[in-house]
């Protein structure tokens, strides 16, 4: 049996190495695409055009406007002392936010009366509006810290929360996105390569020749799995260079990362083998693979937080291997966690992978009889 498995492994490795297109695509997904998507898919607000209606025209109001304009989040493009043009600014998309400073702002602020500022946000792009609102609150708080009221109103003392963000103090989305893109690359390569390989054998008729030999279904799946797992683990090394270029900290163990990546690949390859078991052509395999990959991606928490999903989808997300791999990547890179903290995710990946392999083997045997 060992000689049969070694022979199959040698055949799969040679076929993989003889296909430079596949090797190039794998390297591209782990490097160039990770960089491109990380740079493009950002939730941070930078240089959002904003307008100001300054009805106070005081030293304090000018300082507040200056704080907004000097930040990387906002660029001042429109300014007026009356609110009549605000509607036109927002309708024409010339601004994404309008800051309205009321008359008497400086007087009321110095008297400790906490004058209300009005923020008008274009909610067409809800994520941008939400981020802009947070930035605006932070800049208003900075203004308060720079120019505290001369009079503190009686009874205004209150408990103050001092926030401290661990693991990602800058709250940079690049840190999350680059790890997400590398995890997605691993899922796509792990699923597509074995699926295409098995379906290609079906189209050429060589799968029937293999099945009339003493080779068993488990041995065939093993030979299809090992080269893909090894290829994805090796592809992590150029991906680590990309991660370093984005200044993402690596606080965990490299050995733990490689072992966990191999465990994750077992479930990704199992999904690809299952796809190949129920399809008969490359076209069918590609369509079915994408049909399954999109839910796996959306339910993993890489696009939206799992906690924001409806309860049913939160439960379905437990079936997504990408969810556990993302938790592993974030734990190893950002928190420096190891086996003691990550073994539940590893067990979940093994459970998902074993179930998919069992389903694929049952379907494959029934169809090849």
From TrEMBL:
Parts of the chain that traverse the membrane: 21-41, 176-199, 220-248, 254-278, 285-306, 342-364
Chief location bin: membrane
Membrane topology: Multi-pass membrane protein
Superkingdom, natural source: Bacteria
Subcellular location: Cell inner membrane; Cell membrane
Family annotation (Gene3D superfamilies): abc type-2 transporter like domain
Keywords per UniProt: Cell membrane, Membrane, Transmembrane, Transmembrane helix, Transport
Residue span, ABC transmembrane type-2 domain: 140-367
InterPro entries assigned to the protein according to its UniProt record, in alphabetical order: ABC-2_transporter_component, ABC2_TM, ABC2_TM_bact-type, ABC_2_transport
UniProt key word Cell membrane: yes
Stored Pfam families: ABC2_membrane_3
Family: Belongs to the ABC-2 integral membrane protein family.
Protein name, as recorded: Transport permease protein
Lineage start: Bacteria, Pseudomonadati, Pseudomonadota, Gammaproteobacteria, Lysobacterales
């Amino acid at each position: 049996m060992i000689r049969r498995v070694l022979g199959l492994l040698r055949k799969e490795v040679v076929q993989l190495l003889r296909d430079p297109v596949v090797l190039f695509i794998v390297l591209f997904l782990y490097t160039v695409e990770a960089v491109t998507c990380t740079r493009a898919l950002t939730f941070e607000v930078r240089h959002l055009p904003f307008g100001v209606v300054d009805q106070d025209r005081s030293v304090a109001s000018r300082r507040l406007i200056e704080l907004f304009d000097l930040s990387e989040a906002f660029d001042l493009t429109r300014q007026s002392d009356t609110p009549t043009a605000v509607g036109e600014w927002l309708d024409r998309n010339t601004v994404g936010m309008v800051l309205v400073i009321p008359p008497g702002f400086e007087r009321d602020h110095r008297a400790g009366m906490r004058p209300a500022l009005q923020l008008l946000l274009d909610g067409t792009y809800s994520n941008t509006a939400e981020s802009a609102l947070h930035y605006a609150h932070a800049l208003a708080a900075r203004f308060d810290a720079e120019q505290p009221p001369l009079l503190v109103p009686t009874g205004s003392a209150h408990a103050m929360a001092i926030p401290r963000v661990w693991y990602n103090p800058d709250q940079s989305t690049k840190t999350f996105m680059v790890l997400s893109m590398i995890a997605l690359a691993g899922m796509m390569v792990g699923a597509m390569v074995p699926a295409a390989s098995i379906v290609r054998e079906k189209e050429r008729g060589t799968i029937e020749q293999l099945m009339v030999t003493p080779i068993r279904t488990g041995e065939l799946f093993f030979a299809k799995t090992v080269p893909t797992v090894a290829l994805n683990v090796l592809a992590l090394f150029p991906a680590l260079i990309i991660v370093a270029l984005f200044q993402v900290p690596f606080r965990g163990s490299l050995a733990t990362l490689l072992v966990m990546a191999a465990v994750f690949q077992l479930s990704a390859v199992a999904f690809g083998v299952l796809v190949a078991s129920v399809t008969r052509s490359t076209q069918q395999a590609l369509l079915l693979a994408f049909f399954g990959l999109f839910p796996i991606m959306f339910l993993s928490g890489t696009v939206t937080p799992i906690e924001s999903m409806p309860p049913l989808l939160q439960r379905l997300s437990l079936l997504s291997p990408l969810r556990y791999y993302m938790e592993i990547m974030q734990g190893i890179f950002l928190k420096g966690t190891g086996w003691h903290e990550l073994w539940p995710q590893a067990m979940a990946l093994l459970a998902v992978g074993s179930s998919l392999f069992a389903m694929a083997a049952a379907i494959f045997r029934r169809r090849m009889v």
